[in-house]
């Protein structure tokens, strides 16, 4: 919402968002731009932001489309024919899909070399141990090692994820 206000100069009416507006807004987001924000002390701070990448632009415009459609659903009444926001710029403006990243797999030969590697110091040894533990335990996070005691039941390692702990 902040970058949209930076571009437009103020809050904007959803009916003024057109496909041409979105094309110009995309161009604005791709380039470097200055942002003026108020910090925790009430002072205005100016920062320079670099342009968005393809992935950043995709997420930004997808979120804008979600917000725009939520506004349309809230203010329009299909039953009575009341259409406060009659335009839909996302019919003509298509969000460019993100390119699929190149998969970077670890080869078996590289894994064997790492397994037999003799670290030169304690920090290298810890890094190697954490990586191999995470790899052999199918991607367990280091924080879960730290937060939970070893819990082996019937030959299987069990743990609760820290990331989802408060969501159960």
Describe the structure.
There is one protein chain. The protein is mostly helical and 168 residues long. Helix content is 42%, strand content 10%. It has helices at 2-8, 19-30, 54-75, 108-116, 122-136, 142-147; strands at residues 33-38, 44-49, 152-153, 156-157. The strands form 2 sheets. Strands 1-2 form a two-stranded antiparallel sheet. It has a two-stranded antiparallel ribbon with strand order 3-4. The chain is elongated, with a radius of gyration of 25 Å.
Using brief descriptors, characterize the structure shown.
4 strands; mainly alpha; single chain; two-stranded antiparallel ribbon; 168 residues; 6 helices
Q: Which spans of ≥5 residues are poorly predicted at pLDDT below 50?
A: none
- How is the largest sheet built, in terms of strand order? 1-2
Briefly note the structural class of the backbone.
Answer: mainly alpha
Helix-strand topology string:
HHEEHHHHEE
